[in-house]
Amino acid sequence: EAQVTQNPRYLITVTGKKLTVTCSQNMNHEYMSWYRQDPGLGLRQIYYSMNVEVTDKGDVPEGYKVSRKEKRNFPLILESPSPNQTSLYFCASSWRANYGYTFGSGTRLTVV
Amino acid sequence: DQQVKQNSPSLSVQEGRISILNCDYTNSMFDYFLWYKKYPAEGPTFLISISSIKDKNEDGRFTVFLNKSAKHLSLHIVPSQPGDSAVYFCAAKGGKTGTASKLTFGTGTRLQVTL
Description:
A: 112 residues, mainly beta, seven-stranded mixed sheet, 0% helix, B: six-stranded mixed sheet, five-stranded antiparallel sheet
């Protein structure tokens, strides 16, 4: 089944403790992206990647890192999480620039 | 600065009637627009899209209209069904060179289709 898989689904952590949210797609898509969803703000892009080793900042990249060492994986790294990064995170992939993204099921992160 | 705006946070429509969801944008460089549907506890699902060179795109019960001069697009669902109850996000692509994969989303409209 074609899908985007992100883990974990739920995560509660403490301020400053480094964490990684994994994302993997099995569709051989070139484009991958991370979004966060917050009430009243919709979905905002954090980082995106156009291919292996090619990444760029989205609208809200501060406090996040990404890497794209393999085509299928696009992990989101929070080196020192803070409470304002409490949010619902979505990973997405697409095989062409003008195709709709396929989204994962989301990761609900709480930073206390 | 919200470049893609959905000014109606919610909409209630009777089953069988038409649902019209609206979206406005400010960046005239956007050249591709998409609608996504989102159910609770799931990721957004791609619904329908339209290129800026068109003014209408239809897929079954879903039609998207684009008015470039007004920087406005709308999604029509006819007839509306209870299973259409979800949050609908408008999204736009383009803007700057090299940002072909950057999607800018609106804040969403919650559609409730009542019996």
